[in-house]
From TrEMBL:
Pfam hit, one: HepT-like
One of the record's GO cellular component terms: toxin-antitoxin complex
Molecular function in Gene Ontology: hydrolase activity; nucleotide binding; RNA nuclease activity
Organism: Cellulomonas bogoriensis 69B4 = DSM 16987
Keyword set, alphabetical order: Hydrolase, Nuclease, Nucleotide-binding, Phosphoprotein, Toxin-antitoxin system
Name listed for the protein in its UniProt record: Nucleotidyltransferase
Length: 122
């Protein structure tokens, strides 16, 4: 089954939520010296997932939210997938916070704008 834009937006939102949960675990267990590496790996996976979903979104959907740095998100996916040896925790962490909040808001708005359309379309 082919994934629709609506599915991919849902995938992005699920990955953003998973990143939030990983960060929350890290904060709750800040005294565990081994946890930061595990949390970073989880975050990288979900950032990769977001980038993959973004790359597959139609241009029309991305055009409806021009303030989102769609190409930067796709490039982060490429960095994680192809240039992992250049990856720095600070680079990954720079994608968290405000950038993820902006992406979440944009995806939620795209889904809400089309709530009345038939399922699977955006």
């Amino acid at each position: 089954m082919s994934r629709t834009d609506r599915h991919r937006l849902g995938d992005i939102l699920a990955a953003v939520e998973a990143i939030d949960q990983a960060e929350a675990v890290a904060h709750r267990h800040s005294d565990d010296g081994e946890l930061p590496e595990v949390v970073l790996a989880a975050i990288q996976f979900h950032v990769f997932t977001i980038g993959e979903a973004v790359k597959a979104l139609s241009a029309g959907v991305k055009d409806r939210q021009p303030g989102v740095p769609w190409s930067d998100i796709a490039r982060m996916r490429d960095l994680i997938g192809h240039h992992y040896y250049k990856l720095d925790a600070a680079i990954v962490r720079a994608t968290l916070g405000a950038p993820l909040d902006q992406l979440r808001t944009a995806c939620e708005a795209l889904l809400a704008d089309d709530a009345d359309q038939s399922p699977g379309t955006v």
